[in-house]
Amino acid sequence: MALVVCTWLWGAKYGREYVERLRAGVARHLTQPHKFVVFEPEPEDKHLTEKPGCFCRMRMFSPEWQANKIITDRLVCIDLDTVITGALDPLFDRPEPFVILQGGNASNPCPYNGALMMLRAGAHPDVWSDFSLEAASKVPFDSFPDDQGWLWHKVPNAAGWKTGSEHGVYVFRKPGWPGFSDRRHSIPDDSLPQGARLVTFSGWRNPKTFRHLKWVRENWRV
Fold first, then answer.
1. CB 3.0 to 4.6 Å from 186: which of 15, 70, 134, 181, for a disulfide?
2. Residue 80 in contact with residue 7, Cβ under 8 Å?
3. Longest CA–CA separation in the chain, Å
4. Domain extent at residue 103
5. What CATH number has the domain bearing residue 129?
6. Edge-to-edge strands of the sheet including 82-84?
7. What whole-number distance in Å separates Cα of residue 93 and Cα of residue 31?
């Protein structure tokens, strides 16, 4: 089984219900053989969770970590606050060594969004080997240093899934979402975009607080 789909869990922001809803959404919409895994920070990386920025996920680029976790081909990483709404196979059937969601940030100038990533085993090991909190703090950032800024620094020309209709990947009420007015934050249409495969939430937004929307109720479930 070559494809591993993972999410990361630490802290108190998200509970197991998020894991089970994401697991169920992936199972409903991914037909190729795969394994769903929940990763937690390594003991030596716990200090990274005390800072904002999701830096503990950079461990995924370590060949030693990959070998220990039996990652031999593709590793897809999806944020817990993501709602799966359509077929995933076309998103993951790609040959590039690293693919990341792009174009979904509103104020942050970084083009990358770490809510969805796919890595082939052995690719870009320097993302981890060169990483430190000090090194990441020297990379341009918006509110605080984060993993997506570090990835942009280390892999500046990565392949991407563009937010919007091209790939059917969206960040809720962010650029690419129907009705979003750049820099003006107008109230968007709350219907699910046609052809949407995946909608991730960012910032303060959370699928749990938007269950009054029909498409969230229908897709964010076990």
1. 181
2. yes
3. 47
4. 3-219
5. 3.90.550.10
6. 82-84, 198-200, 169-171
7. 12
Pairwise CA distance, residues 45 & 137, whole Å: 17
Cβ neighbours for 1, distance < 8 A, ≥ 6 positions apart: 33, 34, 35
Helical H runs in 57-155?
63-68, 89-92, 126-129, 133-137, 147-154
**For residue range 32-85, what is the model confidence (pLDDT) as tens digits?**
999 999 999 999 999 999 999 999 999 999 999 999 999 999 999 999 999 999
CB 103 within 8 A of CB 176: yes
The amino acid at 135: A
Cα-Cα-Cα-Cα torsion 55, 203, 201, 208, nearest 10 degrees, comes to 110
Sole residue written with tokens 């830096």 = 55
Strands (E), the chain: 3-8, 34-39, 74-78, 82-84, 98-102, 112-120, 159-162, 169-171, 198-200
Tokens of 84: 């799966």
How far apart (Å, rounded) are the C-alpha atoms in residues 95 and 91?
A: 11
pTM of the model: 0.94
Number of domains into which the chain is organized: 1
Place of tokens 């802290």: 11
Q: Would you say how long the chain is, in residues?
A: 222
Instruction: Count other C-beta atoms under 10 Å from residue 153's C-beta.
Output: 18
